[in-house]
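Objective 1b of the project was to move from sequence-level analysis to a structural picture of ligand recognition. The entry below was assembled by the postdoctoral researcher (A.K.) and checked by the PI before modelling. It contains the amino acid sequence of the target and the SMILES of the bound compound, flavin mononucleotide.
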Amino acid sequence: MPETNLLAQPLRLPNGSVLRNRLAKSSMSETLATYDNHATEKLIGLYGRWAASGAGLLLTGNVMIDRRALGEPGNVVIEDEADLPILRQWARAATGQGAALWVQLNHPGKQSPKGLNASNLAPSAVPFREDMAAFFETPREATSAEIHDIIRRFGESAAICKKAGFSGVEIHGAHGYLISQFLSPHHNLRTDEWGGSPENRRRFVMEVYHEIRRRVGADFPVGIKLNSADFQRGGFTEEESMATIVALVEAGIDLIEISGGTYEAPAMSGGFHKPQKASTAAREAYFLEFAEKVRAAVKVPLMVTGGFRTADGMNAALRSGALDIVGLARLMAIDPDAPAALLQGRDSPYSVRAITTGIKAVDRMGVMEILWYSRQLARIAKGGNPRPGESGLMAFLKSLLKSQWGTYRTKRMRA
Ligand SMILES: Cc1cc2nc3c(=O)[nH]c(=O)nc-3n(C[C@H](O)[C@H](O)[C@H](O)COP(=O)(O)O)c2cc1C
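Corresponding predicted holo structure:
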């Protein structure tokens, strides 16, 4: 057991709000909304259980800002006030138990399965890697009017989240979705003010941030999840990530969560984690070295997500001073009570393992693991317990059927 459990210490954010400790449940797409994208009681059950675990901060799975642009069937969409009553209950499920609950706002851009949306836009019409083209179609280039509309929508969704009683919002700027597509020289080939130089590629995320801030005011926490890098040839680099972070901090962002990767290069779940030095080999988290550089460059609360597993590993990372908040995703899906143990300096009895189907082409894609974990979230949401031993192949096949049914239902409900 660590001498002083730094995980249990409260954290005051620059705007004055206080997190009860340093443990956060990172975003995991729940896909528990209806197929016409309204929040459900299941989310209330899930977040009630996570809040009861004692975690200080819970981030929702990605919530979409436009029902024409879904990342998966069953995403929650927040684009008007029609669902305020259920959104209020969702927020209360966590805040009523002392946890902060922030909504992660997202637009998938091109990273949406074929056939789910009527059409997918992106900064430029860049096709997917060849082996992924069966699942994801080449997007069309967004018009200037569409870009302005998306920026406005981020602000509108954030304002509704505030009204519903959520404790903050997080912009999803990572993992290859629309904001990360704009930042990437590989995906963004535009020659107008939204592309070309790093400043131009950064303009979209800056405008999204400013619009959200304009709508929610100075006191409401606004954070961002950003890639340290895309791990993709010709993609977003650490240098550009650092410059983006500096610009966002100067603009007043309250929290930076560091991650990395895209569907095409899923570094977020450790696929590209190759510690170089012996000192880093002992570390669990994938993006700690980059966090240390960020810490040296800016003063802003930092959260790092990806790879954390043990109370000792988390405490060592906090003690190093490189970060303020430890983000946990997969462990919270197989052990929703993990924070209760970690906050007492004990490890969860469950370990995150690689989930594989045995089908190479499938196992190479990050989405496969996500399907397995979503099934665990659904079990918790219904008041049950996860099944950490569930077979990867069976879960994949069942999820595939569910996803195809979901795509069909989503299209029917849209028609
Ligand atoms: C089922 C599942 C869904 C996820 N959905 C999201 C999401 O909606 N937004 C996001 O930023 N990250 C998402 N992630 C990535 C996690 O937040 C996290 O970055 C990643 O799992 C690494 O952290 P871990 O090692 O603690 O699991 C998801 C991960 C899983 C397993």
